[in-house]
Each structure stands twice: as C-alpha cells, then as structure tokens.
C-alpha cells in the first residue's frame, strides 16, 4: 500500500474543502476503497474520513420522499421500517449483498460508488482501461464470465457490482451532493452513472471532490415490488443476474404499470424502460413476461464466457414478474 496522509472530517463543509487537496479521496466504511488501496489499484495521497459526519439519518420529507443519509449503513437501511414497508425491493437488494459484517460497515454513498469486481481491474499485472486509461482491456478476450452483456464498449465490459443501485434505479432515486462546481446538486440516478464508452475510468457524473450527502426516494409507484438475485452461491456472491421489478395490475389482470432494472448484466445498473412500456396494457401472463425479458436483453452482446447471462436474464425477468403476478392474485 502506498503511504497517504489522513484526516477525520468534522463537518460536511470541511470535508468538501479538504477534497481540493491533491490526490484526496473520501473514505466512508472503507470496505471497497481499502481493499483497492492494498492492491494499489487505488493510490490516494490523502484520505478524508467522512464516517463521523452527521449523515446517518433516514427521514421523511413533507412531500413524502424518504431521505437516506449517505452514511446510513447497509444494515440500517435494510432494517428501517419505512424502507421495509414502502421499498421492500430495496431492503431485499441490500440484504442480498455482501455479508452481515460488511453490511454493518458499508454505507449508502460508498455502495453507490463501489468499483467493479472485474478480475482484470484488480490485477495490476493485466491491462485494464478502467484502471489505466488507454492500457487495453484484458477481459475482452480473457476470462469474462462475470462481465457485462449490456452497455459494454471495446474499451470495457466490466459489470457494475452494486445490488442497492439496481433497486434505486427502479425506484427512481435522486442523489444529493455538496461541493463540486455548483456547490451541490440533485442528480437523478438515471443521470448518475456513465456508460464506459472510451472513458471507462469515469464511472459517474460526480465531479472530483463532490460529496454524496443523501439519497432521496420518491413515494413508491403502485404495485408489488421485489428483488431477485441469481448468483453462484446462495450468499456472499455478486450477481450473475439480478432483477428489481414492480408490477401493477388492474381488475382484469392487465398490466397497469411496471418497472424493471437489472444488475449483473450491465456496465451500469440497468433500467429497462422499453420492456416496461411494452408490458403496459398486456394481459399479465407468461407471454407478456417472456416478451419483457426479450425486450430488456434485445441489445445484449455476449463475449464468450458471459453468453449464458443473456438467456438467464430473460428467464429471471419472466420468472420475477410471474412471481409478482401470482402474489398479487393471492391478494
Ligand atoms: C467480500 C465482499 C463482498 C461483497 N458483496 C457485495 C454484493 O454482493 N453486492 C453489493 O452490492 N456489494 C457487495 N460488496 C460491496 C460492498 O457493498 C461495498 O464495498 C460497500 O457498499 C462500499 O461502501 P463503503 O462505505 O465501505 O465505501 P468505501 O470503501 O468507504 O468507499 C467506496 C468509494 O466511494 C467513495 N465514497 C464513499 N462515500 C462517499 C460519499 N458520501 N461521497 C462521495 N464519495 C464517497 C470513496 O471515495 C470510494 O471511492 C461486497 C464487498 C466485499 C468486500
């Protein structure tokens, strides 16, 4: 690990001001950043520990949004009564991630900004455009079973690892920040992540030194919601495919509304808007749900080792909506 200087921020403004120091990085739970520093993938010159900032509250706004502080732990987020009641897909997504010990330490802001698990990103002896812009991508011709089939480019096919972000995509969350050139702003999660293109090292539209202070959840859309994660082990594994889905049916069992986001398959948490639109008005059943899976994966491109994710994702989408429809019909 490279040597670095360290400070513990005492308030938000001080943290943002310190972020102007050369090579400065925020550290929250440290469960991702420290691992990357140990293998010298990340080499910050200065760490700003934000873990003691007063950003640990979950509160309801007069408009009915739920605001989640950036330092709310994954454990506290998933256990919060309002989250469990109104956003069960989010609670499920979070408890499906990592392990209990990690969730106790990991924070909401850190989860959104965790880096890919592509093995070539972690292996400094291999080429990776995300780690070293212009170096090349070893995953394209390499062991690419875990990589993305949606949103990739010839520079990068690394999959986005976060479960939480997939649910937040379906729930249309907003990321609230302090610092940066605007002094702070609200960024719709749809505009937060970037496709790799030829700059895969830039993963979000955050500016250097911009601090996430909270995540706002609008009131949930009508319908039942869930999160389903398919992975190699029953726990403590990243998604091969995950699905965050919301289904609303009318009295004739036709689809009144649907939301769909996927994890494990995209270079960013993947919202499937066309699939959602295609379902509206359709009779709830296998035909409509299979079509949703097909539309969601229409632009997918496998690279050999990850080809299996395409049919798998189609089936997981269809099964997840079928499960929601059954649950709705049972009342
Ligand atoms: C073994 C293992 C298994 C895991 N399995 C899963 C899994 O199945 N699913 C899943 O989703 N995740 C999984 N994770 C990842 C885990 O969820 C993340 O490591 C964690 O959420 C990161 O949060 P943190 O607070 O520790 O972030 P840190 O490591 O502190 O920071 C991560 C990044 O975010 C930046 N950052 C942190 N907070 C802020 C802020 N408020 N504003 C601006 N920048 C900030 C840091 O500078 C850093 O770049 C796993 C991790 C491990 C180690």
Distance between the termini: 55 Å
Return the CATH topology of the domain at 224-329: Enolase-like, domain 1
User: Helical residue percent?
Assistant: 25-40%
The H/E string reads EHEHEEEHHHHHHHEEEEEEEHHH
The radius of gyration over CA amounts to 20 Å
> Can you give the mean pLDDT?
97
Number of helices: 12
The distinct ligands, each listed once, are:
flavin-adenine dinucleotide
In what range is the share of β-strand residues?
15-25%
Name the overall outline.
globular
Could you give a short account of the major beta sheet? 5 strands, antiparallel
Residue stretches low in confidence (pLDDT < 50, at least 5 long) are none
Q: From the 3D coordinates, which CATH architecture of the domain at 224-329 would you assign? A: 2-Layer Sandwich
Please report the total strand number as a whole number.
Answer: 12
CATH class of the domain at 224-329: Alpha Beta
CATH H-tier superfamily of the domain at 224-329: CO dehydrogenase flavoprotein, C-terminal domain
Structural class: alpha+beta
Give the spatial strand order of the biggest sheet: 4-5-8-6-7
Describe the protein.
The protein has twelve helices and twelve strands. Helices cover 28% and strands 18% of the residues. Among the domains are: 5-52, Uridine Diphospho-n-acetylenolpyruvylglucosamine Reductase, domain 2 (2-Layer Sandwich), CATH 3.30.43; 224-329, Enolase-like, domain 1. A hairpin with a 6-residue loop joins strand 11 and strand 12. The model has no long low-confidence stretch (mean pLDDT 97). It has helices at 12-18, 33-38, 74-79, 81-86, 88-95, 100-105, 108-112, 119-122, 164-170, 273-279, 286-296, 309-329; strands at residues 5-8, 24-27, 46-49, 58-60, 66-69, 174-178, 186-188, 211-217, 224-230, 241-249, 255-263, 270-271. Helix 5 packs antiparallel against helix 9, helix 10 packs antiparallel against helix 11 (286-296) and helix 11 (286-296) runs antiparallel to helix 12. It is of the alpha+beta class and 331 residues long. Bound molecules: flavin-adenine dinucleotide (FAD).
């Amino acid at each position: 690990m490279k040597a670095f200087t360290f400070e513990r921020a005492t308030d938000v403004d001080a943290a943002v001001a310190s972020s102007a120091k050369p090579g400065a990085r925020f550290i929250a739970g440290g469960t991702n950043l420290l691992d990357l520093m140990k293998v010298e993938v990340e080499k910050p010159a200065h760490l700003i520990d934000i873990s003691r900032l007063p950003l640990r509250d979950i509160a309801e706004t007069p408009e009915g949004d739920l605001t989640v502080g950036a330092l709310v732990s994954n454990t506290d987020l998933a256990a919060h009564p309002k989250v469990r009641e109104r956003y069960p897909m989010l609670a499920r997504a979070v408890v499906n991630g990592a392990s209990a010990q990690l969730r106790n330490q990991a924070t909401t802001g850190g989860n959104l900004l965790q880096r890919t698990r592509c093995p070539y990103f972690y292996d400094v002896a291999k080429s990776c455009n995300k780690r070293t812009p212009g170096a090349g991508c070893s995953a394209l011709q390499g062991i690419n079973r875990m990589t993305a089939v949606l949103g990739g480019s010839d520079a990068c096919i690394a999959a986005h690892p976060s479960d939480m972000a997939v649910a937040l995509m379906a729930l249309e969350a907003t990321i609230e920040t302090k610092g940066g050139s605007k002094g702070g702003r609200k960024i719709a999660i749809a505009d937060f992540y970037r496709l790799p293109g030829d700059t895969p090292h830039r993963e979000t539209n955050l500016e250097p030194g911009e601090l996430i202070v909270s995540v706002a959840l609008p009131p949930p859309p009508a319908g039942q919601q869930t999160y389903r994660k398919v992975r190699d082990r029953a726990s403590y594994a990243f998604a091969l495919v995950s699905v965050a889905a919301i289904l609303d049916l009318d009295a004739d069992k036709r689809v009144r509304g649907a939301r769909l986001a996927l994890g494990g398959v995209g270079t960013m948490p993947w919202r499937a808007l066309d699939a959602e639109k295609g379902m509206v008005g359709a009779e709830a059943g296998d035909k409509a749900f299979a079509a949703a899976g097909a539309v969601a994966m229409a632009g997918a491109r496998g690279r050999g080792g990850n080809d299996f994710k395409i049919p798998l994702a189609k089936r997981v989408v269809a099964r997840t909506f079928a499960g929601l429809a059954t649950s709705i019909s049972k009342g």
